[in-house]
Amino acid sequence: MENFWGRRFAALLVDIVIVTLLLWIISSLIFLLMAGLGIFSVLNYWIFIGAILIIVYFTYMEGKTSTTLGKRLFKLKVKAKDGDMNYKTAFIRNLSKILWVPLIVDVILGFIFVDSNDRILDKVSGTCVVNVEEQG
Predict the structure, then answer these.
(1) Do residues 57 and 15 touch, judged by C-beta distance below 8 A?
(2) Residue whose C-alpha is closest to residue 53's, from 30, 33, 72
(3) CA dist 62 to 7, 34, 67, 76, 93, Å?
(4) What is the distance between the alpha carbons of residues 51 and 13, in angstroms, rounded to a whole number?
(5) Residue pLDDT, tens place only, 89-125
(6) The whole model's pTM is what?
(7) CB distance 45 to 29 below 8 Å
(8) Do 70 and 116 contact (CB within 8 A), yes or no?
(9) What is the phi-psi region of residue 22: left when phi exceeds 0, alpha when psi lies from -120 to 50, beta otherwise?
(10) How far apart are CA 47 and CA 24, in angstroms?
(11) Which of 50, 125, 51 is nearest to 88 (CA)?
């Protein structure tokens, strides 16, 4: 369990870079459409589009493969305590990743109220993050 939180944080940073790159690609395509049609009011909703993309990325990756690209790189995996991961469980555990403040609160509450290396939404969703070597 050496440096477990460091690896989780590094995996999150990798995932943030991936999501940011996706957002840049999508925003460049949307900007071309906005410039062509003159509908710049779409920018008012960009934060919601970004939040949806973040939730979709983490929910899809963890619901389908129990890991994200960042977690896979650092040999981490999400495990449901009562069986296989699914999209509903992945969605619940990733709700706090919409913005930084809820994620920080989620981690702090996890340190205070949960006895393991889990965030509070891991407890709520019945999941935990494990080392791939330990899980097998």
Answers:
(1) yes
(2) 30
(3) 17, 33, 5, 11, 10
(4) 16
(5) 999 999 988 877 888 888 888 888 877 778 888 888 9
(6) 0.84
(7) no
(8) no
(9) alpha
(10) 13
(11) 125
How far is Cα of residue 76 from the mean position of the Cα atoms in its chain?
A: 13
Q: How many CB atoms lie within 10 A of CB 106?
A: 20
- The SS3 call for residue 3 is coil
Per-domain boundaries in the chain:
4-135
Q: In one letter, which amino acid is 70?
A: G
Q: Classify residue 83 by its DSSP letter.
A: B
Q: Kindly write down the DSSP assignment for every residue of 27-47, as one continuous string.
A: HHHHHHHHHHHT-GGGGGGHH
CA-based R_g, the chain, Å? 17
